Amino acid sequence: MDERNTPMRTYQVCNVMEASQNNWLRTRHIARDGAQRVYIEIKFTLRDCNSLPGVPGTCKETFNMFYYESNNANLWFIKESQYIKIDTIAADESFTQVDVGDRVMKLNTEVRDISNLSKKGFYLAFQDLGACIALVSVRVFYKKCPLTVLNLAQFPDTVTGGDSALVEVRGLCVNASEEFEAPRMYCSADGGWLVPIGRCVCKPGYEEHKDLCQRKCI
Description:
Helices cover 2% and strands 47% of the residues. The protein is mainly beta.
């Protein structure tokens, strides 16, 4: 339950009284849909080790996040050594026994990204080495430049490139227009269009009106 008494489904582990923990949670295969760079947003709570009485010094306040690229969407086993580490995740806010009694949920949100993906998809994995943690949600997404019309050229939805690479996109002239200079723009890693080059012009007998070409009034 959260502070509003709303039921919540979480994955949690709290084996802090036992040393040498190595607990793993893995997602299903996640298709990348052509994206070279994806973002992972995780929401979680984490218990303050100092608020747990009698806990040994092996108690952790972090956990690790990994990924494994694969074209196989039905892998049931992946060796620990095959994963690539994304980051060690720490909480900005940890909770104590007082927070539990008051039903105060200190929810942390962290976002990480992985780039230069090339296979059909990937698996995410979370490793616990002795923390008291509840994983509330995991959201995976990518960015794209939205469909737009500029200089009488239409540019389609375009998935951003890996790292900070710009993706060059060729525009198509709208109806009743033709190329004056080949229209191009660049889709940035943040999902914005940059550096418009070239344009289309209306064909004879047409005039420009609100990103379209319409027949001239005689």
